[in-house]
């Protein structure tokens, strides 16, 4: 069965430090996608970054990068130079496969950036 | 690009009434839209998958007669909570998948969500 695991329910990080949010996944499908979304207290889900299972390089989007380790089935999100506005819930998600566009969601990690 | 709007953002209604929530993709065509429900401090719970021009596919445990979904066009899907009761109070959020994207890139773009309170 496909599954996403986020083991960190909450994290406190000092402003300007780098942050790594953990995500491990389980799937038997050779083709899948991995996503990270940010949800501020206002509620909207903001797409951050995407990694395809066949992508050779780790995805990067500005201060966000995805540390994709396929053999270990991990897809950790790295935020460089954290800012106060990064405080939010972060969700890792995985696509279910070719014929089904649904996403499987992790439980989320609440990140709080301290000034 | 890839903006999804959702209306209303907040709604308070009396028990027994019906509430309609609209989800629109503003700058792209969405062949597939998703409806989620989220309880406080929890992850998203998929309610149903909606494909343009066809019936929605509901997740197990979701009452299709209570949560009516209509995906009439490539830019609009609606969720109607019929005969709402206090236990239906929740945060409802939609997402849309852009038509024509490669199957391996299944990025969903989310609306801002609707907070429903049933008194």
Account of the protein in words:
The complex is a heterodimer of chains A (115) and B (119). By secondary structure, chain A is mostly beta strands. Chain A is built from no helices and 12 strands. In chain A, the strands form 3 sheets. In chain A, strands 2, 5, 6, 10, 11 and 12 form a 6-stranded mixed β-sheet that branches. A 4-stranded antiparallel β-sheet of chain A has the order 3-9-8-7, with no helix packed on it. In chain A, strands 1-4 form a two-stranded antiparallel sheet. In chain A, strand 8 (64-69) and strand 9 (74-79) form a beta hairpin. Chain A starts with a strand and ends with a strand. In chain B, strands 2, 4, 5, 6, 9, 10 and 11 form a 7-stranded mixed β-sheet that branches. In chain B, strands 1-3-8-7 form a 4-stranded antiparallel β-sheet, with no helix packed on it. The model of chain B has no long low-confidence stretch (mean pLDDT 90). Chain A binds chain B through residues 31-33, 35, 37, 42-47, 50, 52-54, 91, 95, 98, 101-103, 105-108, and chain B through 2, 32, 34, 42-44, 46, 49, 91, 93, 95, 97, 103-113, 115.
């Amino acid at each position: 069965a496909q599954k996403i695991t986020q083991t960190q329910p909450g994290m406190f990080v000092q402003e300007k430090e780098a942050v790594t949010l953990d995500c491990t996944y389980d799937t038997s499908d050779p083709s899948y996608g991995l996503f990270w979304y940010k949800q501020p207290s206002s509620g909207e889900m903001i797409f951050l970054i995407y990694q395809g299972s066949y992508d050779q390089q780790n995805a990067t989007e500005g201060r966000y990068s995805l540390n994709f380790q396929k053999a270990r089935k991990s897809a950790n999100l790295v935020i460089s130079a954290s800012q106060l506005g990064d405080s939010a819930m972060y969700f890792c998600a995985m696509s279910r496969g070719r014929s089904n566009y649904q996403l499987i969601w992790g439980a989320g990690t609440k990140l709080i950036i301290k000034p | 690009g890839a903006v999804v709007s959702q209306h209303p953002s907040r709604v308070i209604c009396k028990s027994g009434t019906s509430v309609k929530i609209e989800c629109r993709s503003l700058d792209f065509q969405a062949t597939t839209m998703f409806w989620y429900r989220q309880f406080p401090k929890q992850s998203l719970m998929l309610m149903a998958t909606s494909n343009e021009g066809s019936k929605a596919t509901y997740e197990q445990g979701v009452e299709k007669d209570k949560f009516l979904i209509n995906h009439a066009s490539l830019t609009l899907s609606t969720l109607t909570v019929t005969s709402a009761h206090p236990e239906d109070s929740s945060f409802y959020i939609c997402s849309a998948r852009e038509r024509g994207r490669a199957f391996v890139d299944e990025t969903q773009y989310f609306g801002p969500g609707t907070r429903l309170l049933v008194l």
